[in-house]
Amino acid sequence: MIKFSAPGKVYLFGEHAVVYGEPALACAIDERVFVTVEERSDNVIKVFSNDLFFKDVTVELINDETRLIPGERTLKPLEYVFESIKEIKSIEKDIPGFEMNIESQLPYGGGLGSSAAVTVASIKSLSELLGLELTKDEIAETAYRVEKKVQKRASPCDTFTSTMGGLTWVETGEELEKKGSLEIPVVIGFTGQPGPTGVLVEQVSRLKESFPEIIEPVITSIGKITKQGLQSVNKNDYDAVGRLMNVNHGLLDSLGVGTQKLNEIVYIAREAGASGAKITGAGGGGCILAIGNNSQKIKSSIKSNGYEAFETKITRTGVREE
Ligand code: MEV
What we know:
Elements: E1 2-13, E2 24-39, E3 45-49, E4 57-62, E5 65-69, H1 76-91, E6 98-104, H2 114-129, H3 136-150, H4 156-164, E7 167-170, E8 177-178, E9 186-190, H5 197-210, H6 212-234, H7 238-254, H8 260-271, E10 276-280, E11 287-291, H9 295-304, E12 308-312, E13 320-321
Bound molecules: (R)-mevalonate.
């Protein structure tokens, strides 16, 4: 039996502005997707999951024909698994049947990179099953190809961060770069609804077209926050990191990607003593990220107001054997 896990991710700074060439800083969080594979004696591929992804559903893949048991349902997360299998088949045509089990600690659709983590962990487990010895760069590249095929638009940031772990510096036209880590407890608060990334990116673009002289400086300011934020992270100055997160949140809200729920959770986290709290990801739903040493109190305050929340930490470890 082979078992690998891959982490989810959050944006510490820079989402949306990154679409316009500003840098962003993403971090791997220690909430993982676990993929177990075991060879079968026939050529049937079975994929199981008993958690959020596809509860109580077994999928059989025989000669690329899928059969869902029970019944037919649209299972978006499975597309990442099937595309990963296809990518592996394009490297090694003759693959044996296997059983794959997927477990996730990440809420699906929360903007925390769950699809990238599923993809990275699936590719790594299958490549190990077949003795393919893919490098981490190859895993990240293959996983990015899968995300591009399944989604219309994808950024290599999620799959890179999930593969490598730690902090990822994202800049258009530059290679993604791994940059240290962040040693402070983190709390994620979830609105319970996914944020429609494509729609929000489009909305920001329209706002920028309508008011370029106002919106362009907002985007440039977010880029400056990201650069300053990295310096503060490198100095372990979490008070400054938190204050910069708060400014970044205000600017994201001014771009129109905040919602009542996101703002409510951000303010609950700050009231509970977070040194910084902001939207993470596209907004419009999805999650907020808060940092602070009193993470237990931040988490319980968010939960007592009826939202999902969990404590986690930034992990230096990307895809790993379990
Ligand atoms: C979404 O997770 C992050 C955005 O910046 C979009 C992107 O970079 O593709 C909003």
